[in-house]
Design brief:
The chain is α/β, with parallel strands linked by helices. It folds into two domains: 30-114, Leucine Dehydrogenase, chain A, domain 1 (Rossmann fold), CATH 3.40.50.10860; 140-262, Rossmann fold, CATH 3.40.50.720. 42% of the residues lie in helices and 15% in strands. It has ten helices and eleven strands. Helix 6 (140-152) packs across helix 7.
Length: 285
C-alpha cells in the first residue's frame, strides 16, 4: 500500500478562508479580533514562530500586538504585562511564547492569563473544561490534528489511537480529544516497554516525540493513519518529522508529511481560537 498524503497546507488554507469570513462578520459588528504575543529573549525558533503568527493575523485582517521582552526580564514584570493585557478590551487572545527563560515559572505565567483569553488552551481551567467536554479553548496543535482527520473524512469512534509522546502541549491533550470522540486511546512514552507491540495496534498513530525518523515501518500496522507532529532537523540540516516518511508511507493508509502536514494547522487553530474569543466577548459584554 502507498499512503494517501494528508495535505495540511491545503486544509489550513481552506480553514483560513472560513476564519477570514468570520473576521469580516465580527468587524461589521464593530469588533476586530486581536491577538497579543509576548516573546521573551531571543530564541531563534521562537522568533520565527512569533513572526509567522503576526503574519497570519495580518493576512486575516486581525489586530496583532507583539510585545518583546529582554531575556533578563523579571517574572513580576511579565506578570504585570499579562495582567494589563487581561484588562485590554481590544485584545481577545494572549499567547506567551514558550519556552521561557529558566528564572521564570512557566506554570505561574500560564495561570496568570485570563482563561477567557487563553487561546493556547494551556490554562488548567481550559484543560479541565476540555477533559470534561465543556466549551473550552482547545490547544492548537491537537485541535489542528482533529481538523485534519475530519477534513480527510477519517472516522474516529471505536478506533484505537496510539499516542507516542506525553507533552502537555501535544501528547496528553491530543489523546483526550480522541477519547472525547469515542476512540480507545493508548499513551506511549520514553519508558514504554516494547513500543512496537503497542504502535502496531494503532488504527491512528500520533508521533509526537521530537526525535527525527523515530517511527519506522516496523512500528506501523498496514493501512494505519499516521500523524507526524515532529519538526526536527536531520544530520544534513533538512527539516524532517518523527516518522521515517519513505518507508512508513509504503505501509500506511494515510500520512501527514513534514513540512506541510500538521505544522500549518497549529497557527490556523490559534487564529480560530482568537476569533472565537472575540465572538464570545460580544455575547458576554
Ligand atoms: N512553543 C512551542 N509551541 C508553542 C505553542 O503552541 N504555544 C506557545 N505559547 N509556545 C509554544
Amino acid at each position: 500500500m502507498t499512503a494517501q498524503i494528508i495535505n495540511g497546507k491545503d486544509i489550513a488554507a481552506k480553514k483560513r478562508l472560513e476564519i477570514a469570513e468570520e473576521v469580516v462578520r465580527l468587524k461589521d459588528l464593530g469588533v476586530t479580533p486581536g491577538l497579543a504575543v509576548i516573546l521573551v529573549g531571543n530564541n531563534h525558533a521562537s522568533r520565527t514562530y512569533v513572526t509567522n503568527k503576526e503574519k497570519a493575523c495580518k493576512e486575516l485582517g486581525m489586530h496583532s500586538l507583539l510585545i518583546e521582552m529582554q531575556e533578563e526580564v523579571s517574572e513580576d514584570e511579565l506578570l504585570t504585562k499579562i495582567a494589563e493585557l487581561n484588562e485590554t478590551p481590544d485584545i481577545h487572545g494572549i499567547l506567551v511564547q514558550l519556552p521561557l527563560p529558566k528564572h521564570i515559572d512557566e506554570k505561574k505565567v500560564i495561570e496568570s492569563i485570563s482563561p477567557l483569553k487563553d487561546v493556547d488552551g494551556f490554562h488548567p481551567i481550559n484543560i479541565g473544561r476540555m477533559m470534561t467536554g465543556q466549551n473550552a479553548f482547545l490547544p492548537c496543535t491537537p485541535y489542528g490534528i482533529m481538523v485534519l482527520l475530519e477534513e480527510t473524512g477519517i472516522s474516529i469512534p471505536g478506533k484505537h489511537v496510539v499516542v507516542v509522546g506525553r507533552s502537555n502541549i501535544v501528547g496528553k491533550p491530543v489523546g483526550q480529544l480522541f477519547l472525547n470522540q469515542d476512540a480507545t486511546v493508548t499513551y506511549c512514552h520514553s519508558k514504554t516497554n516494547d513500543l512496537p507491540f503497542h504502535t502496531n495496534q494503532a488504527d491512528i498513530l500520533i508521533a509526537a516525540v521530537g526525535i527525527p525518523n523515530f517511527i519506522k515501518a516496523e512500528h506501523v500496522k498496514n493501512g494505519a493513519v499516521i500523524i507526524d507532529v515532529g519538526i526536527n532537523r536531520n544530520e544534513a540540516g533538512k527539516l524532517c518529522g518523527d516518522v521515517a516518511f519513505d518507508e512508513v508511507s509504503e505501509k500506511a493508509g494515510y500520512i501527514t508529511p513534514v513540512p506541510k502536514g500538521v505544522g500549518p494547522m497549529t497557527i490556523t487553530m490559534l487564529m480560530y481560537n482568537t476569533v472565537k474569543s472575540a465572538a464570545e466577548s460580544l455575547t458576554r459584554d
